[in-house]
Structure formats: structure tokens, C-alpha cells
């Protein structure tokens, strides 16, 4: 049986050449075309682009995820690197095709003003490097609306950007995040401004904190929450109340449409606590509170949020002089105090701590009447006296003039030392001025009223030591600590002789007592009178001795005459 076999038509060489030319004339090196996957091997992927031979793409140009999903007959974009190499192979690249596609998309995005997503790769000079499919430059000025301090904190984060410059030939792309933020801010600003009214409650985000307040982003526009409008009470610093990023509901106090300035208030959301302080804290009432601030002149006490009173240092203790409030109270202490005065208009409340305890000065007069002898310890010594503490915590002053009846005390430290136990006598009590006067010399009888007039009589001699030399005379310390004065007129000085040349401190001097004034507590002495009296005494002694001699001579003459008569 004969078999008939069909023979294909054989094209002549010219027709075949024409067909090949028509088929491959659009396949050019350096262009992108679509190819079909015909085989997936371990190290390469075989692609058919309709050329006379199939092309090879290295498998490492595909990600592991792409290789897992890639299948035969899938179509992909490829870049024709070389139609025939030395071995006649068609060389293709998926990597270059992807990059060219990215550049095409970036140019479209730039032309159409569209956003692109990118990831911050690293920090470089002048800005950041961003991956948007290709590496792009993000200038530092285009990162945010405000300067960013921590640029390293942006690395690894993804954002949307606007392309502000693209040059495929040079491989140069510049992006901006600030442009997007400004567009968003402007849209929010228009929306916010169209609805903003004074008295409106609005929620904002704290974007900046200063010494005088906090700036809030209200939605594309900023408002100032001044420190005085944060709380009815004391606010040390806005940062004590808020942190950057906090969301706060505030009240619009004022909106100036011409300048765009917005003043905000937080405390105005609640009633002013000072509106009822006179009713809540009447004068004389006892109130608890917390110490919130200390100054040199007192302590501020919070009675309730927004209401503070001042305890002046003079109102902290009945008996002690408080030099600084920190010696009595500390910040955070819970204390009781008494309302002394309320000035609602000036928003001031005066408080007293000592008024919560009995005033010891109310009983001091009855417990220590004048003339009472007490004992206490020296608390301090000053130039004018010594302060002695009583057991009730009240200090009394022994003035320097009440330390000795007779001795001239130059400084209280000659008699008293801090911590020394002493006895004294109550001299005077001034309850209004809270002063207690003590006497030390009053423990003994006043010698000017007892023995001084008898011990130091006018005309008598007194011997003592020079205690002080002055221009007008010399002070002599006599027996018993009594001082006498030899006035310059009672001293025989040569015209050119000075007081310091004739006397020295400690020198022993004998003088005549010429005056004793017990009322003025003064004894006047005289060297001139003493010398004159000494001369008279010597003359009397001379006359007395001469008389005795004359008497002896007379007796001798009489005896001699008698002997002569006897011989006759």
C-alpha cells in the first residue's frame, strides 16, 4: 500500500531571509522587551523573546520569593544586553529591566507630582540616603517642617516623599518629605481656620515647650498655651505639666485673624477656685495644706489646686527668730495653719503656723513676774549682750549694761560663752514686742548703795591699776572692780609730756579720792591732790621731827645748866 506523505513547502532563501529580517528587526540591544519563561534551571532562567535563539538570565537576578513563584510560560520584562556574544548566545538582564522600569515610574511620578514611598538607608553629609527603588538624596532641609535633632533615629524608617528632581542619565534623584508635610499642613490649616472661633474647645498636640508656655499644633496652625493659662495654681515650668507629643483639649481664648495668633487656655475649662475663697477660708479658720514653694521670706502652701497661701517667716514660730523657712518646713510637707487675712481681689491669702499653738507670751508674765530668778543656757553672744533661753523656748537678753555693777565690760564674751548655764533675774517683759530683759548683776546687791560709799571716802587714798588711757584722763581699776577716773586736769604733766609716756596699762597708781557720785556711779581721783597731800604730810612730819629735836635740845640745855649749878 502506497503511502502518501505531505511535504512542507520549502521557502526559498530570499523569502526566509525576509522573514527573519521582519521578525527580528525590532529586537535591539539596549532596549526592554517582553519575554516568556521556557525553562527554570538552578543557575539560570531561559527566556524566549521571539529571537532566533533563546536568552539566558542568571538566577541571582531573581529574589528567592520571585523564584518560588516563577513558572514556565510566565511573561516578564527583560533588557537586551547583547543579541549575540562570541558564542552566539542572546544575553538578557532582568535587573536592568527592573531599574529602567523604576526610572520610568519615577519620571512619571515627578511629572505628575505623585508621592513615592521610600526607606531611609543612612545618614550622609547634608542629609539622608533613601531607597525609592533607586538611591535618592534627601536634603536635611527637606526632612521635616522643623529641624530634626536625631537624624540617626530616622534610619530604617519608611516615609512618603515628593520627587523634586530626577535625572536618569546622571542617576540623580532628589526627594522631599517636607513638601508633603507642608501640603498636608496647609490643607489642615484651611480646615481649622474655617471653623475656629473664640470660646471653642479644640484638641491640639504639644509640639514645642518654652519657659513661658507650650505651643500646640491645632491642625496645620499653632496656638500658644501661656504658662499663666495652664493652671489656676502655681506652675514652675510648662515641662512639669506636658511632654512633646501630648494631646490636650484646650479653650480658644483669642484668635487674631489679621496676625494669625491664637491664644489658648487650659485652666479656663474649670471654674476659678478664687471666686469662693472668702467663703471657704474665713479669717481665723484652721486649714490643712501642702508646702509647694519656699522663698527667703516665707513658704507657699497649697490649700487646694489653684489656691495658695503664704506663711511669712514671722508667722512660723512664737519663740524663735526664723531666718529661713527651710529651717522649719520642707517642700511637700503637710502642715496646718490659720487663715490670717484673705484678699480675694489680689488673690492673696496670709497664713500663720504659730497661731495653731498657744502663745507662750500669753503666760510668761504670770509664770515669770519681774524680779524672778531664772536659770538657762546662753544661746548666742553679741556685741551688746547675751541671749539666754528659758525652758519655754523664749529667749531673754542680758544687756552688757546689766552684767556688772562695777566692772567695765568691753564685750559680753568676757563673762559668757555659748552653751554656758547662767542664772539671771527677770527685769522687764514686753509682751507686745515679745521681748524679755534679764539682769546678771542684779543677782547681787548694788555695791554703790552698800559698801562703796564707806570703802571709798572723799579725801582718802585709793590704789589701783591703769585699765585704760584716754585723751581726757586715765581709768584706774580699784579694789572690787570699781573704776575711778583721774582727769587730765588732776595730773601734773610737763608741757611736752604725753599721757602714754607717763602711764601704761597695768601700772599701779595711788591717788586721792576727790569725788564719789553714787547716782552717776563715778569716782574721781587726783594725782595732784595726792602729791600735795603727800607734801603736806612730809612737812608735818618734818615739823614734828624738828619739834622733837628742839625739845631734846632744850632738855639737854636744862640738864647742862643744872650740872653747872651743882658744881658751883
Report what the structure shows.
The chain is α+β, with helices and mostly antiparallel strands and 568 residues long. Among the domains are: 113-181, OB fold (Dihydrolipoamide Acetyltransferase, E2P) (Beta Barrel); 196-269, Nucleic acid-binding proteins (OB fold (Dihydrolipoamide Acetyltransferase, E2P), Beta Barrel), CATH 2.40.50; 288-356, Nucleic acid-binding proteins (OB fold (Dihydrolipoamide Acetyltransferase, E2P)), CATH 2.40.50.140; 368-443, Beta Barrel (OB fold (Dihydrolipoamide Acetyltransferase, E2P)); 447-531, Nucleic acid-binding proteins (OB fold (Dihydrolipoamide Acetyltransferase, E2P), Beta Barrel), CATH 2.40.50.140. Helix content is 20%, strand content 36%. The strands form six sheets. It has a five-stranded mixed beta barrel with strand order 1-2-3-5-4. Strands 8-7-6-9-10 form a five-stranded antiparallel β-sheet. A hairpin with a 2-residue loop joins strand 26 (461-470) and strand 27 (473-477). The longest helix has 41 residues, at 527-567. The protein is elongated, with a radius of gyration of 57 Å. Residues 1-10 have low confidence and may be disordered.
Amino acid at each position: 500500500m502506497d503511502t502518501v506523505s505531505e511535504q512542507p513547502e520549502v521557502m526559498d532563501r530570499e523569502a526566509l531571509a525576509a522573514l527573519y529580517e521582519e521578525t527580528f528587526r525590532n529586537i535591539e540591544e539596549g532596549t526592554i522587551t517582553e519575554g516568556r519563561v521556557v525553562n527554570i534551571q538552578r543557575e539560570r532562567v531561559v527566556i524566549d523573546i521571539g529571537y532566533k535563539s533563546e536568552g539566558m538570565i542568571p538566577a541571582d537576578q531573581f529574589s528567592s520569593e520571585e523564584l518560588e513563584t516563577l513558572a514556565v510560560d510566565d511573561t516578564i520584562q527583560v533588557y537586551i544586553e547583547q543579541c549575540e556574544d562570541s558564542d552566539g548566545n542572546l544575553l538578557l538582564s532582568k535587573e536592568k529591566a527592573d531599574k529602567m522600569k523604576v526610572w520610568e515610574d519615577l519620571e512619571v511620578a515627578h511629572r505628575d507630582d505623585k508621592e513615592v514611598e521610600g526607606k531611609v538607608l543612612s545618614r550622609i553629609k547634608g542629609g539622608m540616603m533613601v531607597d525609592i527603588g533607586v538611591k535618592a538624596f534627601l536634603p536635611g532641609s527637606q526632612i521635616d517642617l522643623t529641624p530634626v535633632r536625631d537624624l540617626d533615629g530616622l534610619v530604617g524608617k519608611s516615609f512618603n516623599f515628593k520627587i523634586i528632581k530626577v535625572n536618569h542619565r546622571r542617576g540623580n534623584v532628589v526627594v522631599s518629605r517636607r513638601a508633603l508635610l507642608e501640603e498636608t499642613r496647609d490643607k489642615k490649616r484651611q480646615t481649622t481656620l474655617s471653623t475656629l472661633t473664640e470660646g471653642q474647645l479644640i484638641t491640639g498636640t504639644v509640639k514645642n515647650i518654652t519657659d513661658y508656655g507650650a505651643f500646640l499644633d491645632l491642625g496645620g496652625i499653632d496656638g500658644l498655651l501661656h504658662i499663666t493659662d495652664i493652671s489656676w495654681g502655681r506652675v514652675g515650668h510648662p515641662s512639669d505639666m506636658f511632654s512633646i507629643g501630648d494631646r490636650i483639649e484646650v479653650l480658644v481664648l483669642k484668635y487674631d485673624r489679621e496676625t494669625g495668633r491664637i491664644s489658648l487656655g487650659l485652666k479656663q475649662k474649670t471654674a476659678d477656685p478664687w471666686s469662693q475663697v472668702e467663703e471657704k477660708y474665713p479669717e481665723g479658720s484652721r486649714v490643712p495644706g501642702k508646702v509647694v514653694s519656699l522663698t527667703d521670706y516665707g513658704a507657699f502652701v497649697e490649700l487646694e489646686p489653684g489656691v495658695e497661701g503664704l506663711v511669712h517667716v514671722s508667722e512660723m514660730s512664737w519663740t524663735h527668730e526664723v531666718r529661713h523657712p527651710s529651717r522649719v518646713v520642707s517642700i511637700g510637707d503637710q502642715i496646718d495653719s490659720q487663715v490670717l487675712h484673705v484678699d480675694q481681689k489680689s488673690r492673696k491669702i496670709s497664713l500663720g503656723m504659730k497661731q495653731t499653738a498657744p502663745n507662750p507670751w500669753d503666760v510668761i508674765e504670770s509664770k515669770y513676774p519681774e524680779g524672778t530668778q531664772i536659770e538657762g543656757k546662753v544661746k548666742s553672744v553679741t556685741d551688746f549682750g547675751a541671749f539666754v533661753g528659758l525652758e519655754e523656748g523664749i529667749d531673754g537678753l542680758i544687756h552688757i549694761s546689766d552684767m556688772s555693777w562695777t566692772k567695765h565690760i568691753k564685750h559680753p564674751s568676757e563673762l559668757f560663752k555659748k552653751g554656758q548655764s547662767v542664772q539671771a533675774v527677770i527685769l522687764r517683759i514686753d509682751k507686745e514686742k515679745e521681748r524679755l530683759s534679764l539682769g546678771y548683776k542684779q543677782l547681787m546687791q548694788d555695791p554703790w548703795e552698800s559698801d562703796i560709799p564707806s570703802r571709798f571716802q572723799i579725801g582718802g587714798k585709793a590704789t589701783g591699776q591703769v585699765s585704760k588711757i584716754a585723751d581726757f584722763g586715765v581709768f584706774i581699776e580699784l579694789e572690787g572692780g570699781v573704776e575711778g577716773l583721774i582727769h587730765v586736769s588732776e595730773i601734773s604733766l610737763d608741757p611736752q609730756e604725753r599721757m602714754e609716756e607717763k602711764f601704761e596699762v597695768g601700772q599701779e597708781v595711788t591717788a586721792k579720792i576727790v569725788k564719789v557720785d553714787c547716782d552717776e556711779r563715778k569716782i574721781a581721783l587726783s594725782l595732784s591732790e595726792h602729791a600735795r597731800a603727800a607734801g603736806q604730810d612730809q612737812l608735818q612730819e618734818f615739823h614734828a621731827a624738828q619739834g622733837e629735836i628742839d625739845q631734846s635740845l632744850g632738855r639737854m640745855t636744862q640738864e647742862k645748866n643744872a650740872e653747872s649749878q651743882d658744881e658751883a
